[in-house]
Amino acid sequence: MPVTPEQQAEIDALRANPRPTLRAVSDGMEAHLYTINPVLDHGFVRVIDYMGDDAAICQAARVSYGKGTKSVQNDEGLIRYLMRHWHSTPFEMCELKLHVKLPVFVARQWIRHRTANVNEYSARYSILDREFYIPSADQLAAQSSINNQGRGEALTGAEAERVLDILKSDAARCYDHYQDMISDDGQQGLARELARMNLPANIYTQWYWKVDLHNLLHFLRLRADAHAQYEIRVYADEICKLVADWVPFAYKAFEDYRMGGETLSAAALDCVRRMLKGEEVTQETSGMSAREWRELQEVLG
Amino acid sequence: MPVTPEQQAEIDALRANPRPTLRAVSDGMEAHLYTINPVLDHGFVRVIDYMGDDAAICQAARVSYGKGTKSVQNDEGLIRYLMRHWHSTPFEMCELKLHVKLPVFVARQWIRHRTANVNEYSARYSILDREFYIPSADQLAAQSSINNQGRGEALTGAEAERVLDILKSDAARCYDHYQDMISDDGQQGLARELARMNLPANIYTQWYWKVDLHNLLHFLRLRADAHAQYEIRVYADEICKLVADWVPFAYKAFEDYRMGGETLSAAALDCVRRMLKGEEVTQETSGMSAREWRELQEVLG
Amino acid sequence: MPVTPEQQAEIDALRANPRPTLRAVSDGMEAHLYTINPVLDHGFVRVIDYMGDDAAICQAARVSYGKGTKSVQNDEGLIRYLMRHWHSTPFEMCELKLHVKLPVFVARQWIRHRTANVNEYSARYSILDREFYIPSADQLAAQSSINNQGRGEALTGAEAERVLDILKSDAARCYDHYQDMISDDGQQGLARELARMNLPANIYTQWYWKVDLHNLLHFLRLRADAHAQYEIRVYADEICKLVADWVPFAYKAFEDYRMGGETLSAAALDCVRRMLKGEEVTQETSGMSAREWRELQEVLG
Amino acid sequence: MPVTPEQQAEIDALRANPRPTLRAVSDGMEAHLYTINPVLDHGFVRVIDYMGDDAAICQAARVSYGKGTKSVQNDEGLIRYLMRHWHSTPFEMCELKLHVKLPVFVARQWIRHRTANVNEYSARYSILDREFYIPSADQLAAQSSINNQGRGEALTGAEAERVLDILKSDAARCYDHYQDMISDDGQQGLARELARMNLPANIYTQWYWKVDLHNLLHFLRLRADAHAQYEIRVYADEICKLVADWVPFAYKAFEDYRMGGETLSAAALDCVRRMLKGEEVTQETSGMSAREWRELQEVLG
C-alpha cells in the first residue's frame, strides 16, 4: 500500500477546501490534484500543482491580453499547427508539479532530463523507508538475446524463484544492516550520509518534480516509448493519462504528431517515393543498411 | 496610455469570474492578476499566472504529502534558513508568468537571462505598434565620466531639447517609412520580416515571460541593483512589489540576505577582522587594490 | 569589407604559430581557425576554438579510456546509429566557439536558442560601428501573399529603389544622430546606454557564441531550413560547411537523418501504408486536413 | 588500483603523440591530459579535453579579433574585475571535459548540477565491475549530534569493525548475486537492466562530464566547501588542483572572491558597521537570531 492513513488524511485535507482563483483552471486536472496514482509495487505519481490549460498555450502564442483564440475550435487548430511545426515555446507556458515515488534505479534514468526542477527526499538528512521494488512475475525478464539494452521473455520455474528470492533477501538484509548501522542504541551510530551507501538500487525514493509542458512531452515521447525500460515506462504511461485530462487538445496533437509519428531519413523517403511510383525496391537497391531497411519495413507495416 | 479600451475589456473579463481550485492560492497575487502595472512611458508588467506560495516552498523542501511545515511561523523560519544557505531547488518550485511590454533595447538585456520561457510578439508575422520609449527629462542623462557603463547628471537646456527632438523625430520618421514600405496600397509591399529592420531600438515589443522563483530572484538581484540600467531597473522594481505580495516570507528573506547583503572577499574579510581587533588598516596595509579598497569603504559605510 | 588591416593582422598572428597539444585535433577545422567567412554585406562567421572530433563522440558514448572505437569505420557506424536513434549526449561532448558579426534583427532570432554561451559586444559600454545591413536586390522581397511569416518575389523598379533609399538614408541619419548625441565636443554628451536606442535593427553587432554539437545541429536544422528567414539562413549555411569539415561523419549523419528527413504523423503514416497497398487515397479519405494533406503531397514528391 | 595495464596503455598511447594546433593551449593542463588522479579507494578524475585558457576569458569579454588584452598583467586585472563583479559569461567561454569514476551515491549528488553534459557508463547495456567504496578508518564517521546533515567523530573499536564488515560483506554478496542472476550458464539469465537493482549505492560508476568554467566554479564552490559530504569534496578538491594549473588567474580570483569570501546579510552588515564605530553589539541588540549571530561570530573570527 503506497500511502499511510496519516498521508491519506493530509491528502484529504488538501482536497477538502476549494478556494476561488482568477487563474486558468483545468477541471480535468482539478479532479486529479493530490490523489495517489499507484505505479509498480510501492510507487506513485500525484499532481501537486499545475499552471495553464489548452487556452493558455494559445494565449501565449498570440501574446494576447485576454484568453487564447476567439473560439475553442480555433484553439485546437492553433495547437495542432504549433505541434506539427515544432513550435516549442507556447507549450513551455504550461507547467506541472508532481510528487513521485520511484525506485532509485528509475530515478537515475529520470534525472537525466535536465530541464526540470527537482527536490528529492534526502537520505543524507533523513532515514529512508523499508520499501523495495520487486518485479512481478511477468516482468522478471531474461536478457534479450538480440539487444544488449533490452529484455526477452519472462523467466520461469526455479530460475524465477531464485531471482525473486535473491532480490527480496538481499534488500531485506541490506536494510536491516542499514538500520543496525545508524542505530544509536548502545553505540554511536554511523552517519546517515554514509549508511545509505549500503542500500540497493531498488529502494524507493521520492521527489517533487516540476517541468513545463514542452519538456514533459519530450520526456513522455522517450519514456512512454516501447524501447524504454518497463519500470520507467509505467510512470510515463500514468503521466500521459494525467496530461490527457489536463490539456486535451495538446495531448491529442502530441499523440498524432509525436507518439504515433515516425521520422524517415532522406534515404527512407527516397525509397517510399520510388515504391509509390511502382518501383520494386529491395534492401540492395535501397541504399540503406540491412538494419535501417528492417526498421523501415517495420514502420511501413 | 498603455492599454486600449478593448484590452481593458479583455482584462476585466478575465477578472470577472473567479473559479474554484484546489491548488495553492496566494491572495496577495490574486489581487494583481491581469491588471496593468505601468512602467516607463508605454510599458507595463502584468501577472498572467502563478504557481505556488510560501507554503509550497516548504512543502517541496520537505517532499511532503500535505502542506509545508506545521505552522506559518515554521514556514518563515525554514524559508529564511533555505535562503541563507543558498538552497535553490525549493524556490524553483514556484513559478510566475508575466506579460511584459518593453523597449527592444531593454528586451535585449532581459533575454540574456536564459533560464526562463519566452513568447515574443513576432514582427516577422505581425505589424508593430507606433510606440517608442522617449526618456523623461530627469532620465535624459549624460555619459558618466568615471564609468564607461553608466550615466551622470541629466542633460539640460538646449542639449536636452536637441536630444529629445532627435529621438522623437527619428522614431517617427523610421516608423512612417516602415508603414510606407509594408503598405500594399498601389505597390507590392516589402516583407514584414525585412521592413522591421528599419525600426530603432526604442520601439516597444511585448512578450510572455515565465520563470521560476529562484531564477526570478536572481534576475531581480541583478536588475533591481543600483548598477543596472535605469530602464530595466524600473521593471525589476515593479516585479519586486508583485513578488512581495505573492510570497512575502521568501521576498523578505531575499531582501535581507541578497538585496541588502554584500559578499566580502577573503582580503576584505581579513581587513574587517583586523579592524575589529582595533588595528588601523589602510589601503597600503590592506593587501587590496585602490579600487577594491574604495568598494570596501562603501560597504562599511 | 568585413575586416580591417589591423584585424587581419591579429588573425594572421593567431594563425602563425601552431603549438603542440595532446588533445583531439580536427585537421579540417584547424584550416578554418580564426579566418573570416563573410556573410551578408558586412557580417561574418569565424571559428575561435573547438573541442573534440568524430572519434570524441564515440569515445564519450563508450565512456572509454582511450580513443573511440577500434576503427574509423566503426566510428562512422556508431555515429550513424546514435544519430538515427536520437542519442543526444555523445554529440554534446563536442563544442564549438564562434565569433559572429550579424545584424541586430538576426541576433534577436538567434539568441532564442538558449542552450549556448554568449558574450555580446556591449553598446552600453562601447560605441557601435557605422555598419548596416542593406539587402541585395534579389533579397529585397515582397510580403508573401500566402504566408504571414514569409516572403514572395523580389521587389522591382521604383518600389525597390524607394525601399533601398529609405533603408540607407534612415540608417545613415540615425547613425549621424547617434554620433551627435554621444559627442562630448562642446556639450555633455548623452550616455551611450541611452543613445543606442536611436539605432535601427539592421545595425551590425558582434558576439562570441559557444555551443555543443548537439545543440548546434538543432540550431542548424531550424535555421538552415527553407522556412527560416534568409538573413539567418545564410549564417546557418556557412556554419554547416564548417561543421562538415570539423566532424564529417556526424555531419553526414545529420544530413541523412535530420536535414533530409521528414517526420510523418500517425495519420500520414496510415495514408502511406494504404497507398503502398495500392489503395487510392484522397484528402477526403485521408483523415487529414487540407493543409496537412498538401504538406504530405510535398513530402512524397 | 584504479587502472588496468590495458587502460594505462590506452592512456600512454594518447599521450605519446602531440599534434600541432592553432587553438589556445594551456601548458599547465597539457601536463594533466589523460592521466589518472586517484580519488577515494577506486575512483579517479582525469582530463579528457579542455577549451580555452586565461587569455580566452579576456578575449571573449572584449569580443576581440585577436588575443585577450594587450598584456598578461592586464589579463589578470580584467579577470579579477569580472569575478568580483559577478560577470559570468566570459568564464563560460572555457570548457572542461573529465572522465570520472565515482561511487553511485556520490554520482547522485553530482548530477544535480544540471548545467553540464554527461555520458554515463550504462548498467542497462553493460556489466558493472566489482568495485565498491569502503570508507577508510578515519572517514567511518558517526552521525553528527548537532546537524542532521553531517558527521561527527570517527567510529572506533568494535562498532567500527562491525560497520566495515557489514559494508564489505553486503557489497560482496550483492555483487555475487548480481553475477549469478545475469549468468546465462545453464539458465536464461536475468536482464541486465533488472539485475543492476540489486547493487548497493557504494558501487562505482563512470562518466564523461563536460562543463563550462563558470558552472564548474559554481560546482566547486558548493562541493569543495567544508559542509559538503567528504566523499564528493575529495573529487572537488582534486578538480580544484587541475583548474589552478589550467587557468591560474581565474582560479586565484575564484579563491579570493568566492571560496575565501563570505556573504553578509543586511543585518550582519549593520552589526559590523556598528561594531566598527565602537558599539558593543550583542545577539540581543543585533536583530539576528541566535543561529545567525553564531554564524556571524564564526565569520568574524
Automatic annotation (TrEMBL), chains A, B, C, D:
Cofactors required: FAD
Binding site for FAD: T89, R112, H113, R114, E120, D212, L213, H214, H218
InterPro entries, per the entry: Thymidylate_synthase_ThyX (IPR003669), Thymidylate_synthase_ThyX_sf (IPR036098)
EC number: 2.1.1.148
Pathway in which the depicted protein is active: Pyrimidine metabolism; dTTP biosynthesis
Keywords: FAD, Flavoprotein, Methyltransferase, NADP, Nucleotide biosynthesis, Transferase
SUPFAM superfamilies: Thymidylate synthase-complementing protein Thy1
Amino-acid positions noted as binding dUMP in the UniProt annotation, renumbered to this chain: Q109, W110, I111, R112, E120, Y121, S122, A123, R124, R196, R223
Cofactor note: Binds 4 FAD per tetramer. Each FAD binding site is formed by three monomers.
Molecular functions (GO terms): flavin adenine dinucleotide binding; NADPH binding; thymidylate synthase (FAD) activity; thymidylate synthase activity
One of the GO BP terms on file: methylation
Catalytic reaction annotation: dUMP + (6R)-5,10-methylene-5,6,7,8-tetrahydrofolate + NADPH + H(+) = dTMP + (6S)-5,6,7,8-tetrahydrofolate + NADP(+)
A Pfam family assignment: Thy1
Location of the active site: R223
PANTHER family for the chain: FLAVIN-DEPENDENT THYMIDYLATE SYNTHASE (PTHR34934)
Function text: Catalyzes the reductive methylation of 2'-deoxyuridine-5'-monophosphate (dUMP) to 2'-deoxythymidine-5'-monophosphate (dTMP) while utilizing 5,10-methylenetetrahydrofolate (mTHF) as the methyl donor, and NADPH and FADH(2) as the reductant.
Self-association and partners: Homotetramer.
Family named by the database record: Belongs to the thymidylate synthase ThyX family.
HAMAP family reported in the protein's UniProt record: ThyX
Name of the protein this chain belongs to: Flavin-dependent thymidylate synthase
Organism: Thalassovita gelatinovora
